[in-house]
Request: fold
Amino acid sequence: MMYKVALLPGDGIGPEVADAAVAVLEQVGAKFDLSFEFSKQLIGGCSYDKYDNPLTDETIQACYDADAVFLGAVGGHKWEALPQNKKPEAALLKIRKSLGLYTNIRPAKVYSSLLDASSLKADVLEGTDFVIFRELTGDVYFGEPRGYNDEKGWNTMIYNREEVVRIAKKAFETARRRKKVVVSVDKANVLDCSQFWRKIVHEIHADYPDVALSDLYVDNAAMQIVRDPKQFDVILTQNLFGDILSDIAAMITGSLGMLPSASIGDKYALYEPVHGSAPDIAGQNKANPLASIASIGMMFSYSFNLPKATAIIEKGIDETLKQSYRTADIFKEGDKLVSTTKMTEIVKENISKILEEELA
Ligand code: IPM
Ligand code: MG
Reply:
């Protein structure tokens, strides 16, 4: 089986972590008789530098033509002063909208060997394993009207029924394969748009009576994630709230450098590490490739229907951490400090062993 993958390394450490992703994709894919054809494209600041446009039609077309998209990271100080629609971040929003990627899935799982890398106490954290379903193509991010002048600034928080229905279904379906518990996060005590969100989520819930549903206001949810993260399994939330909560979730697991993500629509899917472009360490072979490798793990489940491959990749990462290999972002006294490429090599060796055992 041959799959087409659009490869969008982007800016900063993006190209380095994308190399790691490709290496593991090819390694594990080969064992499952998959081969890949890559279409490498620019996105973000590097695309702006060349075309005066952070996301060209050519890049979007390559994504339309692909079975899956991998994105490294976009952005950097260099482009911060550009007008909103030229900024690297504008490319992210545009690609999400163009590909209809309405479900952003961000798992927050704590690797036992990284328990002491978190700012939370180990006993609060141990066993944390939840996933955020963040709506990704609606809300204030895209609502019209929007704008500002010398006197005022405004955005529109808006959801229509179908936008809430489709992501709610995805969250409930995933909950069925997990612990069957969904917490929907909104701000229904203040915002009409959130009242609507809550109403629709409960309507859809009627079709999933085997899944427990509760609601939390976003301020309380932020507090609860830090107070007792173990209580969560699937968190379903609006775009803006999901943006904020997923950063909190990322940080309690020890490092932003560890977390993968998948953005899924009805036709297309894009995988990217949650961390940004980290321009300060770009090109120094210091970046943590594990979030990108784990994103490839998600690609195997969601785009190629091979959850077994996902499990093997996760095990390979876990094993590597247990052997005390660390990139600088998660390094502590007594660990073995390694570069991006070295870390990737070791993960690959571990995966290789696991593949031999499991596919023997
Ligand atoms: C994220 C990022 C983006 C967002 C920015 C860079 C546009 O923070 O993916 O969480 O707000 O969605
Ligand atoms: Mg964010």
The chain has a mean pLDDT of 96. The longest strand covers residues 2-10. Residues 243, 247 surround magnesium ion (ligand 2) (CB under 6 Å).
